[in-house]
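Task card 7
Instruction: Convert sequence to structure tokens.
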Amino acid sequence: MASPYVADPRTVVIDPGHGGEEVGAANFGVVEKESNLEMAFRVERLLVERGLRVVLTRRVDARASYEGLAATPTGFSAQRVDLQGRVDLANSEHAAAYVSIHSNGSASGAERGIEVYYNSQRPHAAENLRLARLVNDSVLAEVSAAGYPANARGVKDDSCLRAFQGRCFPLFVLGPDRVTNRDEILRRGGNPDALLPRGQDEFRSRATQMPATLVELFFISNAEDAAILRSEPAREAMARGVARGITRYLGLD
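Output:
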């Protein structure tokens, strides 16, 4: 029987989304993987100033290491290796909270604003929601106080963010454990031999053991939002908002 997860109340994991060949959204002079990492460094600085220990899931423009795998993962397999590595790092560091930083993209240039995701299908669902609400409210407050317009898109449950063949799929870093078999990996464009344990036909993911949320800071695909993302004062306001939401969650504010 696995030992109960014991969180370090002073440790926070910040996850800058994407990296390497996984660019994310890109438009109007903003590249998401770069923006996410730069924002994570800002949030880290602010949290360290409050005496917290901060772990970033990446510090360079790269995905998780592929060392030790039977083959180099591609497509879906590479994504799974990368995201699982981020979750495993957070668990190994006994973090008290996990916050993934992203910006949105859409085929419609009209969509804009800030939204925050949580998952309601976890043992710590109530804490997921509390963390998400605090990050959402703090970011909106800081951005507004700095004089930037922000469309409040709300706090959203990602439990059925995507549906496929009658199944619901949440964001990987927020969702519960899941099982992916060899056939599904192939259908989704992955390399089973690079993802599956030797001699097995299923990949069993491991979920975060701590409350987690994912914040989408504006739409890179919207010209006005992208201009805000390019603004130094606005970026610092966003970082203050994310950091303040975390410190409020931890009872420091």
